[in-house]
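Notes from the 1:1 (GR / supervisor)

We went over the backlog. Supervisor wanted to see one worked example end to end before approving the batch request, so GR pasted a single chain during the call. The sequence is below; no edits were made to it. Supervisor asked that the structure be written out right there so they could see what the output format looks like.
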Amino acid sequence: MKFGKEFVSQMVPEWQEAYLDYNSLKALLKDLLRFQQTRTPASMASTPNGSALTRRASLYRAFSGLTSRHRDSPRAQEDEEILVSGDGEDGRYHTFVTVSDDERGYEVKFFNRLDDEFNKVVVFYKKKVREVVEEADELSRQMDTLIALRLKVDNPMVDFGDSSPNSAVHPINGRRTGGQTMGVIEEVEMMEDEGRGGYEPKTRKQIGNGGNDRFRPPQLEILEHVKINVTPETPVSTLKGIILNSEKQDLSFSKKELRKAEEQMKQAFNEFYQKLRLLKSYCFLNQLALSKIMKKHDKITSRNASKVHLNMMETSYLGTCDDVTRLIERVENTFIKHFANGNHRKGMKILRPTARKEKHRSTFFLGMFSGCSIALVVAIIVLIHARGLLKSEGRSLYMENIFPLYSLFGFIVLHMVVFSANIYYWRRYRVNYSFIFGLKKGTEIGYRQSFLMSSSLAVLALAGVLSNLDMEMDPGTKSFRALTELVPLGLVMVVLGIMLCPFNILYRSSRFFLIQTVVHCVCAPLYKVTLPDFFLADQLTSQVQAFRSLEFYVCYYGWGDYKKRSHNCLDSDVYKTFYFIVAIIPYWIRSLQCLRRLVEEKDGMQGLNGLKYFSTIVAVAMRTSFDLKKGMTWKILAMTSSFIATVVSTYWDIVIDWGLLQRNSENRWLRDKLLIPNKSVYFVAMVLNVLLRLAWMQSVLGFREAPYIHRTALVAIVACLEIIRRGIWNFFRLENEHLNNVGKYRAFKSVPLPFNYYHDEGKSI
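Structure output shown during the call:
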């Protein structure tokens, strides 16, 4: 792989614009090379033996390169034509090219661009180093409080500020409490830090107070000025916070509080460590890119300009600042000591998790299940044609009873296949979906794993369909076989069992993450709304027919006669009521999430988004009422509400969620930044979104009759089109979110810290 592609692949996606623009610098060097190639034939044509002269000149030049070069030699003068200065008022580096012929004009353009790019890198690196040093200072402060809390929990008899020599002795380990205990900790800290060459961020106030203050242990008095923030957000805690409206939660010095605080600090250190590693990689990659591009320049121009610029790079902030390296060592030592019980291997395994490796057996089973799925589809088609099932008298009975049961698996499989395609294209265009969703590094599933699960579920569902293709009852019993009729229910139980399986098999971390997100959606607005929560809620709005299929399962197997494939669900008022409710639930969840974000973030756009979902709720309610009650009045209401909801939702999808249709953007009617080079893809996606929205509107209006297609099948087809539309929406929604993160250089999530500090009687901590 060429360095340019490797350089791009190693970039932090959200910092891409802050890296050295290697490709543009390489393009300038190509312009210089083309100019040289256009001049070479003319110079050779003026000399009869041009090739021989060129060869002799190259031989002499090569030989002179082995000897010592004098300052007054032509080669030395060429080297002195390129100077780099960093003494400007703004601290920026400037390259001066003293000779100004045609070729040097190209070099002036190249070096001006190189200066701009390098100064951009230095400024960005300075800013990020300053941020991590400030964050390290805050983490040190939090760590002091955590250690003090550990002392207080382990030794409840310790008084605040007790440093007297007659302090109490711990009844278990015999150590003295108070000042003597703190002295022991100070001594251990000093010995370990001196042995490892520990580093303390230079922003710490202790440095300015003398050498002894650097190893000053945390004082227990700090606990008097701390508000703990370790209560996990649950519906109960949210309701308590609303009812009690308590501003301060005092420390109770319990082991439960200590354990939760340690978990939060562990997560904060882990996230901070990943930030330091990426910042170190950023520094190294830019240094390597500068070295590579200067070597290309020297190769093209046969000059030695790289020496000057590499010296400049080594003496710049990029080459001299070692704060990041020292902080990495300090974080490793602190994490291993305080969160891994001194076990280096265990601590580093947490800080540097290994990436999920692609296994050959996943590819093998993916191919096997995909082939089996295709074979089963072919077998079903052949069986239907051979038996003439489409003309059978039991066709309507099958479509009204069995088809809705298996359509549930069709909706799930199609959604998983579409999501697998989303993951593939997110990776291809470097959309950092794992960061956007907040997935733990090394646990996210790829498109192969997602497609493997969908194909395996498809095999089970298609095998069940094949077993349920009997159209005629047994003449002897006037019923169907109970075992085959219970296959759909058994498949549902298998899927639920796999989802809730507590063992570490079948992507447990991803399953539990999905379950947690579902709980947050169901309990909205009692949980803080994050992107995975409302993203999943949006997926659920495209699975209304799947929810109705689940409702049909309950009615069919609970109150129907599944052995005779008969039910009275549509005659039940309870079924009609829930048929109405389950269609509204996903949109209602999404509306409550918008309400929660409106209250917390004070963002008016969330209020408008909530109104959009409310308009969809009205449209679905009118459509369902028309389905159940019929009548021209309900039809007019359904048409009007559906038209309004479709127009509003389409506009919101394209303009707000995708960020397109910007009139004054660099890409006409799109947006300034695009990940897909082919712009026509965006216009095709917008057209498809409109057309598929209209297909959904057709479902809302109740036009369900078509030649050669059963009404139930037509409903399933429209539902599948909505799932496909959601898959298209998924890609461009996350692309827009990723570009927003890129614009703000937001590559890390904010981790809540367990302790908040407040002022007490004019004293601040």
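Supervisor's comment: The first helix runs from residue 3 to 9.
Batch request approved.
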